[in-house]
Amino acid sequence: MLSLFGKSRSMIGLDIGTYSIKAIEVTSRAGSLVVTGYGETRVPAAEERASALRQLTQQHHLSGLVASSVSGRSVISRYLTLEEMPDHELANRIRFEADKYIPFEADKVVLDYQLVQRLPDSKEIKVILVAVKRSEIDEHVRLITAAGLTPAIIDVDIFAIGNAFEMNKLMGPGALPADKVHALVDIGANKTSINIMQGNVSQFAREVYIAGNEFLEAVGKGMNLSDAEVDALFDNPGDKVDEVIELIATALDDLGNEVRLSFDYYESQFDRPVDEAYVSGGGCQLPGLERFLERIFDVKTQRWDPTERLQFSLEHVNVDDVKRNCSRLAVAVGLAARAGMG
Ligand SMILES: Nc1ncnc2c1ncn2[C@@H]1O[C@H](COP(=O)(O)OP(=O)(O)OP(=O)(O)O)[C@@H](O)[C@H]1O
Ligand SMILES: [Mg+2]
Description:
Number of helices: 10
Largest sheet: 7 strands, mixed
Structural class: alpha/beta
CATH class of the largest domain: Alpha Beta
Number of domains: 3
CATH architecture of the largest domain: 2-Layer Sandwich
Distance between the termini: 13 Å
Order of helices and strands: EEEEHEEHEEHEHEEEHHHEHEEHH
CATH topology of the largest domain: Nucleotidyltransferase, domain 5
Number of strands: 15
Bound molecules: adenosine-5'-triphosphate, magnesium ion
Strand order of the largest sheet: 1-9-5-2-3-4-15
């Protein structure tokens, strides 16, 4: 969304999460998007991040342009309905609206906006206004540059996930109906992001700060295991699955109820129900977790594979690795898919 330096046909989607850094390189070849590189590493302490990123990119032969994203409390987005107006007026109007809605000082933020919809039968438009703390963008650019890469695009996690969903589920043969309301729920380590979309139009976005970390802690304490041991257990719980579910039940309930509250808010504002939920993120890695979420969300809930429509360059990428971790790759894929939009 915040295009700093342009676009390219080959793009590394770089998701610097709070738990792991994911990098996926997508190359646009003859109309197809091909994964030409993939790597992931645990997030180290702040001062070691640039070298960890450099190591990751060297190990997986990744170089060139990077699309990255920001999230959390330094990002604010607002949905505005405005009367139609010429572009130069719109830019001014957005600045005026930002002064009203954004609680950061004007010189400390980067503002951008995207037209999401022209409302049929009226002279109105819908716009998403995004404000990001300048220090957060500077930090990303510094990190990417220090790792020897070239920052090209800075987006926002939630909208990158929406972009991945659009590419995989709303385009081409078998696309989902454009009038349905889909809630994308990405359960990361530190946060769960919720994006409610009608077709490819984002209508509501929010982050909730309950996610995989709570699960990790509950199971770590309850079973006396390290983070890595809990992750291995999440990937392959075998006959321990009931015990794990029992340990995370409280956090799962809290999270599910927060998400359900967002659905309720959406339903009262837009006067229509959320039709389906699509879950992603490492926090839902535990097999079968979506059935528990479904009960709390009270709508049909399924996992989705953000790499479903991508092709793979087998000489560069281990497809099994990508598929095993695909739930965690929604942000990175949505960012890298900008390669096909240049
Ligand atoms: N095999 C696994 N490898 C890594 N994390 C896993 C695995 N299985 C489950 N998890 C859990 O997934 C969570 C990390 O998910 P994810 O990678 O989506 O988060 P993140 O993007 O780094 O964080 P955030 O978006 O909140 O900043 C952790 O809480 C971790 O315990
Ligand atoms: Mg994340």
